Amino acid sequence: MKLNKLAASLAVAVAAAVVMAPAAPQAAELPEATKKILAKLKLDASILKGLDKEMNPPKAWIDGAKKEGRVKIGGTWDPDQFRKMAAPFVERYPFVKITYNRATRMDRVNKPLMAFRAGRYLTDVISGIGAQFPLFKELNAIVDLRVLPNWGNVPDGMKHPEGLWVGQRLRYWCLSYNTKLVKKSELPKTWDALVDDPRWHNQKIGLGNRPNLWLVMLWGIKGSEWGGNYINKMFAVTKPQLRKEGMNAMIGLAIAGEFEIALPSAAYRVIQMVDKGAPIGWHCPEPVPLAVSELAVMRGNPHMNASLLFVDWFMSKEGQIAQYAANKAPPVHRELQTQNFLAFPDQILGKKIAFRSPELMERTMVKVFKVWDPAWQRGLGISYKTVKVKITKTKRKGRRISFKVGGKTHTVKVSGSRTQVLINGQDNDRSNIKVGMTCMVTYPGNKEEARKFSCK
Fold first, then answer.
1. Does the global pTM surpass 0.70?
2. CA angle at residue 106 from 421 to 405, to 5 degrees?
3. C or N terminus of the chain, fewer CB within 10 Å?
4. How many CB atoms lie within 10 A of CB 19?
5. Alpha-carbon dihedral of residues 270, 276, 280, 285, nearest 10 degrees?
């Protein structure tokens, strides 16, 4: 499905009301956890119409999962959210023990890929592969999910055309704001207004180093000339606070008044804080950036039947509603993309959607970062240098690495997500950088964070 057609279909689907059909599963047939979820959300059981067909996986998967006995899942759900979300699955399939790991991108995505190269398996099911997807595809590391009976529940464009991943949840990425410091009437109606209005200049915006979450989508609609100009305005004219924290932490900083606006912020994360009574709101200039998080299964993993059983359940109405109940993430199930499952429907309905398709990511990501990265570094006053050194010391599993430059010892920080680590030309983990290795190190100076290690 082409981008404009997909955006149009999303707008229609989101605006539609949930149809409460008379035919529905009998309450006695549902897991107790599902009954509690429906009661919590004040949803009639009729919303699960057709669930009996969705809960019909191949018998071979069930038999195989009983023998395997477990499945390992790496994701970005908070542990308590995952436990609540998975409760109906656990009731339906008590013979499958779930080991869940809420991990950084390095631990969740990069390490399983490195293990796969070595013929080992750390994780069976992975969420949020993102920009690393081309490597997974190149190594034939993930399975074709078109075998899932519930594959058709997810619209085209929200799953890989060759079945290599399926959408996990919709994520609308806009901005959050401190409701004590910002009036609704002041909020920008367009993205251009955010950088052109002096109201938001001079440290009023807390900006995260994640243009892939929002700017890629806008770039795709408005083009490279607009995108390049926008980045220059954002950094040179607006002068935001450039923050190194994660996007969830930035919402907390906006609540604390560190800045008035946090960019970008996911709607489902903000509503969690609103529900706790925090002085935070969520606002979307037009067009509205929309992304889909990916869910994939590692090829050849030792719990393949349990993996497919879990993902197929997750693509059902029950699985998607359970996720929404746990963390307010909008469902990808085609019949659940309605205003009932939007945290801030007034900020989305009727607005143009800027959708981040896999094709757009592949086509645009490099262009965006080519302009964004130098602007970010200039904004922080950072200039990088690259030196050829021999590693003399490592601490904390590679989080701190020392070497000598001009006779003086330099120690740099190595981030699990921001520092690229290559060993013999292959992506690797910082813990595998060893004393005695010769490395090309790109970094701003002693005691700072390195941008890249390329070692032999």
1. yes
2. 30
3. C
4. 10
5. 30
